[in-house]
Amino acid sequence: MPRSVNSVASRAKRKRFMELAKGFFGRKKNVWTVAKNAIEKGLVYAYRDRKAKKRDFRTLWIARINAGARTHGMSYSQFMGKVKKSGIDLNRKVLADLAMNHPSAFEAVVKKLK
Length: 114
Fold this sequence. Notes:
Layout: H1 7-20, H2 32-71, H3 76-86, H4 92-101, H5 103-113
Helix pairs in contact: 1-2, 2-4, 4-5
C-alpha cells in the first residue's frame, strides 16, 4: 500500500509559517528550515515578553509615583501606605498618570493624605 501524504495541508502549514517570517532578514524569511526555527524562537520571545511587559510597566509607574511623591516631601512607600490606609481606590497606573500629566490633581491626592 502506498504511503499517504496530505501535501495540501503540509503546504498550507508551511505557507502560514512563512507568512509569519515576513520582515525577517536573509534566509530567515525564505528558507523553510531556517524560518521555522526563527519563527518558533520569536513566538517564545513574544510569550515571555508579554509577561515581562507587565513587570516593566509596573516598575515605570512606581518610579513616576515616587518622583511625584518626593516633590511633595514623601517617599513612595509612605505615599502608598497612606493611599491604602485612606481607602483611595486608585491603582498605580492612574496615580502615575496623575503624577506625570496632571500635577495639580496629584497634589490634591497628596493633600488629602496629609
